[in-house]
Amino acid sequence: PNYVMNLDPAVGNVPYSCNIDIRDSINYKNVMHQYGLGPNGGIMTSLNLFATQFDQVMGLVEKRLSDLKYVMVDTPGQIEV
Fold this sequence. Notes:
The chain is α/β, with parallel strands linked by helices. It has helices spanning about 30-35, 40-50, 55-65, and strands spanning about 1-5, 20, 70-75.
């Protein structure tokens, strides 16, 4: 089986199921409002906030690693990310 992560906090929907989705723990629009940011700043700040939890994310993946063939990561399309 595959393991899928969505790391794009601003995507409206994804056409596949995700094992881990940044949108489950980070609300992009709230981040923009809270920090007074535009869209790109909101994405960057959301990713920075999520990065503080990334050891937990990697722990979840590592627990299943022996059962996985691929780990797929969908990231934002902005080049500055």
